[in-house]
Design brief:
- The protein is of the alpha/beta class.
- It folds into 2 domains: 194 residues, 3-Layer(aba) Sandwich (Rossmann fold); 106 residues, 3-Layer(aba) Sandwich (Rossmann fold).
- 30% of the residues lie in helices and 22% in strands.
- It has a 6-stranded mixed β-sheet with strand order 5-4-6-7-10-9, with helices on both faces. Strands 13-12-11-14-15 form a 5-stranded parallel β-sheet.
- Helix 9 links the parallel strand 11 and strand 12.
- Helix 8 crosses helix 9.
- The longest helix is centred in the C-terminal third of the chain and has 22 residues.
Length: 357
C-alpha cells in the first residue's frame, strides 16, 4: 500500500556541476514509499535512477556510535571467534578497524558479519539477507544496524525516503526477513544516531526473541500499520511549507541564509520547498566531491566550509541535525547562527521562534 508519495523529484545522488544550467528532466524521478501488507516491510516503490551515490565524509557522530556499538556487543559476549566480514555502505565508514583492534581477521565466511546501513541499498532484499546469512559461520553472529522506521515516523523524517534506499526496517519486518534466511534475532541495542537506530544480532537457527528484542518490538508497535506510517505524507507537506515560509521571512527582513550539508535527504526537501539561490545562497559540505557542484533541481551551489565561514551568513540551515555538535565545535565563528532543519517538522511560524545555536 502507498504510504508516502513525493511525486517527481531530482535523483538524490547526482549533483550537477554548478555551471550546468538547471534542466527540467532533473526533477523527473518518481519517489514514493509502499508498505507491504504481508511482511510489513516499508519499501521504495520504484527507482528509475541510474547514478552512483557520491561518497560523503563520515560524520564524527557515526564514528563514535560505531565504537560504542562494538563495545556494547563485546560486553554482551557476541564478539566470538576470530574472523570478520563486512558488507559495506556507500554512506562511508567501516567497523573493520574496530574489530581488527580486537584481533579479528577478514574472511569470506566469518564468525562476525557486519552490516551497518548497507542492506537498505539492496534492490533484492531476500537475496541480500540470504547472502549475509551464507557469509555467517556456524555459531557466528550477523550484526545488522538500521535506521528505525519508528524513528522516521515519530520524528517526521519523511525525507529519509530516497532513491537507492530500497528498504526501511522495523524489528517486525526484520524478524521475518531473517527468518526466511534461517536466522533469528537474539539481541538488540538502541542508539540515538539519526534520531534512533537499532543494532540487531542474529544467529543461525530458530530461537525465541530475547527481552531486548521484545522491547524494540514494543517501541516500534504500529510500524506495520499503513495508517500509522502514512502520517509521513502529512509531515512532508507541512515541513516543506514551514521551511518555505521561514526562508521567505528571512529574505523579507534582509537576512542571508546559507545551509550546511548537501546530503541526499536535503535534495527532496529543497525541491519540494521550492528552494532557489534567492532563498538559500549556497550549501556548504565537507565532501570535496560535491564542492563546485549544485543541489539537484536547483541553482543553489555547493561550497566548502571555509567559504561558508568567509561569507559571514546571518543564518545557517543545518540539513543534518546529527552534525550540530560537530559543526558548532568546528566553526565557532558561526555560533548563534545555526538553525536545525528538524524544527520545521514541528514549528509553523516563520518568525524568530526557531531555536538558533
Amino acid at each position: 500500500m502507498r504510504v508516502l508519495d513525493l511525486g517527481c523529484v531530482p535523483a538524490q545522488d547526482l549533483f550537477p556541476r554548478a555551471a550546468d544550467p538547471v534542466a527540467a528532466e532533473e526533477s523527473s524521478h518518481p519517489l514514493a514509499m509502499d508498505l507491504c501488507r504481508d511482511c510489513g516491510l516499508a519499501q521504495l516503490a520504484e527507482d528509475d535512477t541510474m547514478t552512483d551515490e557520491v561518497r560523503g565524509v563520515e560524520p564524527l557522530a557515526l564514528k563514535r556510535q560505531a565504537a560504542d556499538a562494538v563495545r556494547r556487543v563485546a560486553d554482551a559476549r557476541w564478539l566470538r571467534g576470530s574472523t570478520v566480514r563486512e558488507f559495506g555502505s556507500p554512506h562511508g565508514g567501516s567497523w573493520l578497524p574496530l574489530l581488527a583492534e580486537r584481533g579479528f581477521v577478514r574472511s569470506d565466511v566469518a564468525d562476525v558479519v557486519l552490516d551497518s546501513f548497507g542492506l537498505m541499498h539492496e534492490p533484492d532484499q531476500q537475496d541480500a539477507f540470504a547472502r549475509r546469512a551464507a557469509a555467517t559461520a556456524d555459531g557466528g553472529v550477523l550484526l545488522v544496524q538500521y535506521h528505525s522506521l519508528a524513528t522516521i515516523v515519530a520524528k517526521k523524517q519523511w525525507n529519509a525516503l530516497r532513491h537507492g534506499h530500497y528498504a526501511y526496517y522495523s524489528m517486525a519486518a526484520l524478524l521475518g526477513l531473517l527468518d526466511n534466511a534461517g536466522m533469528s534475532i537474539v539481541d538488540a541495542w538502541h542508539f540515538d544516531l539519526y534520531g534512533g537506530t537499532v543494532l540487531a544480532a542474529a544467529v543461525h537457527g530458530r530461537q525465541s526473541p530475547s527481552e531486548s528484542v521484545r522491547r524494540v518490538l514494543e517501541d516500534e508497535a504500529g510500524m506495520t500499520d499503513s495508517v500509522v506510517v502514512a502520517g509521513l505524507q502529512r509531515a512532508a507537506d507541512s515541513h516543506c511549507q514551514a521551511l518555505r515560509s521561514w526562508l521567505e521571512h528571512q529574505r523579507s527582513v534582509g537576512r542571508r541564509v546559507y545551509a550546511y550539508g548537501a546530503a541526499s535527504r536535503a535534495v527532496a526537501l529543497f525541491a519540494l520547498s521550492g528552494v532557489t539561490r534567492g532563498l538559500v545562497t549556497a550549501v556548504a559540505d565537507a565532501s570535496t566531491a560535491k564542492q563546485g557542484r549544485r543541489m539537484p533541481g536547483t541553482d543553489v551551489p555547493i561550497i566548502s566550509p571555509g567559504e561558508l565561514v568567509a561569507a559571514d551568513p546571518d543564518c545557517v540551515l543545518l540539513t543534518l541535525p546529527d552534525l550540530l555538535t560537530e559543526v558548532s565545535g568546528a566553526f565557532p565563528e558561526l555560533a548563534g547562527r545555526w538553525v536545525s532543519d528538524e524544527h520545521f517538522a514541528i514549528d509553523r511560524s516563520p518568525d524568530e521562534t526557531y531555536a538558533r545555536f
